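Re-run requested by the PI after the first attempt was lost when the workstation crashed. Everything re-entered from the original request form. Ligand of interest: cobalamin.
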Amino acid sequence: MKILLIAPCSAQEQRPDSMDIPQLTLSLIAALTPPEHEIQIIEEAYGEKVNFDGDFDVVGISIMTQTCIRGYQIANEFKKRGKIVVFGGIHATSMPEESIRFGNSVVIGEAEGLWDIVLDDIKHNRLKPFYKLDQLPDLQNHVSPRRDLIKCSSGKFSIAPIETTRGCPYNCDFCTVSRFFGTKQRHKPIRDIIADIESCKEKNLFFLDDNITGDKRFAKELFGEMIPRKKLWVGQASIQVANDAELVRLAYKSGCRALLIGFESMSDSGIDQYRKTLKTIDENILAVKKLQDNGIMTMASLIFGLDSDTPEVFDLAHDFLTRSKAAFFQACVLTPYPGTPVFNKLLSQKRILTDDWNRFDASKVIIRPESISPDELLDGYNKIKWHFYSNRSILKRSYPNIKIGFFEALLYFTLNKGYQKRNNPSSFSQVYQNNHDNPVDFNVAKYVHPL
Ligand code: B12
Ligand code: SF4
């Protein structure tokens, strides 16, 4: 059969620039596809166009919440033309009954152990609406992605995505990961990861793992094996990493230059709420400094709009960012992703302002927070990003981050200037809500009609 795999993306989200990190997902599904089939992949984020009249038998569409409406539009076009459409991904897994209205089948959860069955069922005309494994797949028996299909070549930093683990024990209430990938971290075998890394022609890697240092023993062994490969990498970790000096040293030696770290909240009760962070602002600042001293920059990720947030939260966050001299800052607005406790709570309290999934990108105010108004949230959020990425702030934060060398300085200034461009006032967010005729009932047909 001829198979087309698509990662949809709305036109305004397309950004083939120096900061893009290529996807791994479609190349993994391609690798899971038996060789008798022909496969093509399209990533709309890279400006690639879907050919609706192409000669395909099956169309697989990978959706996250903010891309699902575009995914459903694509599905409609293919279904009009009589093609079989299969959905997968985090949104299809959280909302299978919604996705099936637009497709012929939905793969719930991970594709390993299911995708070949789906294709076989299509071939034998017995496709089922839903596919779900009884247990999470064992990553010891995994396939390596089809690296020949990954678009790694755009931008100043050509980056290869690498996946080593799945699952997260922390189970944060706003996050889908522990619910989707489980609370136990599963690993791929280190020899396979190293072989995959060696097959990448790119010097720079991005570890997709939610917490690359979650299992310290595994991480130390992996980093040790990576040292002779002489790659440079960025990834995501919990701030606990900073308290293990050996792990930090090994991370640097293995090529780590920046870590995205979810601090989530700097308010007193917020900081208590999430198990992954250290318990005072000062401890967190000290930890960021330990990473800096070892040549590792921090992208601090904070969420605004949590129930614990009072108007002071922006000052606390500002204090943390200024004193720690975090290299980069990912500011998120609390977004109720379906399948999470936050979604259920806010829905039951009628505090979700819109059900337009296009707005669920973590940068738009779509909820009514408990202790501040949506407008206060919006104002504080826009200001803190704008201030962090001002020229003055970029210069003031630079020294401890760029002291290691030329590559670090290039990374620091390129990313900061890139984020500054994305965070200019013309891109500032607003409060989004449905108009009165459109209740927040999560009936997606308001935005895209199933055929
Ligand atoms: C790496 C990452 C990023 C990178 C993306 C790099 C890239 N281009 O891939 C960066 C940092 C840029 C990023 C940004 C964002 N991300 Co992000 N990200 C992740 C992360 C950590 C890993 C994604 C990944 O590649 N996983 C590995 C692949 C193999 O898994 P997978 O895509 O789920 O695919 C498997 C199955 O889902 C299934 N499958 C998937 N598609 C299909 C299709 C078919 C047909 C089939 C059969 C099966 C199938 O099979 C695959 C193999 O088993 C996830 C969390 C996680 N652990 O997944 C969050 C996650 C996907 N991100 C999330 C969010 C919210 C965002 C942002 C909106 C905001 C933000 N502040 O982070 C932006 C949006 C970016 C965009 N427009 O796409 C949420 C999505 C929630 C949701 N319901 O949509 C997640 C789940 C994290 C969370 N906290 O909940 N992200
Ligand atoms: S630690 Fe990160 S990946 Fe794990 S549940 Fe919390 S936010 Fe999600």
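Saved to the shared folder this time. The chain has two domains: 2-132, 152-427.
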